[in-house]
Design a protein that fits this description.
The chain is an all-alpha fold and 38 residues long. Helices cover 89% and strands 0% of the residues. The mean pLDDT is 87. Keywords: Membrane, Transmembrane, Transmembrane helix.
């Protein structure tokens, strides 16, 4: 199963997309909360 995922660019794209979106979302929350606390 992992061999199929590792060699499938669509799976990599979706995984990277999820990671990027989650990272951007958390960064936004941290920045938003930091502005409110000041």
């Amino acid at each position: 199963m992992w061999d199929l995922i590792l060699h499938d660019p669509v799976a990599w794209g979706s995984i990277l997309g999820i990671v990027v979106v989650m990272g951007a979302y958390y960064a936004y929350l941290i920045i938003h909360n930091a502005k409110n606390n000041i």
